[in-house]
Amino acid sequence: NAGVTQTPKFRILKIGQSMTLQCTQDMNHNYMYWYRQDPGMGLKLIYYSVGAGITDKGEVPNGYNVSRSTTEDFPLRLELAAPSQTSVYFCASSHDRSSGANVLTFGAGSRLTVL
Amino acid sequence: DAKTTQPPSMDCAEGRAANLPCNHSTISGNEYVYWYRQIHSQGPQYIIHGLKNNETNEMASLIITEDRKSSTLILPHATLRDTAVYYCIGINAGNNRKLIWGLGTSLAVNP
What we know:
The complex is a heterodimer of chains A (115) and B (111). Helices cover 0% and strands 49% of the residues of chain A. Chain A is mostly beta strands. In chain A, strands 2, 4, 5, 6, 9, 10 and 11 form a 7-stranded mixed sheet that branches. Chain A has a 4-stranded antiparallel sheet with strand order 1-3-8-7, with no helix packed on it. The N and C termini of chain A lie far apart (36 Å). In chain B, a hairpin with a 4-residue loop joins β5 and β6. The N and C termini of chain B lie far apart (38 Å).
């Protein structure tokens, strides 16, 4: 049981380049999330998905796009990389429960530097 | 969802209990208190959660005051590997998309 797997772990981009951060989970969770974490700061939600085919914006969606074609995969796309997108990106997943525990499981993170 | 307040940093001696406080005075009746921790730059890790009763699992204990305005996470025998940032979060069940991650408490466990 791998949990949440993110690739790549590290990436350096030039300004204006595009790339996709991959995220896959094998826990059959219906909810998936993308967060970014800047140095010394808490996590900020970029996008989330409540199930295949459904995505919605979080707190800081500008400059990013997502898709959710399957339950397992939730890739995050950066179209025109900017230095402000230098950050550590975390993917997470959870079940959707109306009560009780709704624990987030996180990936190991993807460290992105835009120069 | 409830705003939480935590001290920015704490120290603890290895082998002693680490007691991490959290104030959540605006928490509503159906909001759970969750604790996560983040070791170095890894992804956050779930520790424990509770609604109004005290809870214990293999990692920690959670003590919630009777008025639910504050709680304390207890690591009974802290080890060096418990050095991390600890986040206390108030959240409605099923509403992870509205989680607000503050700066947490940076716990340093010293030998």
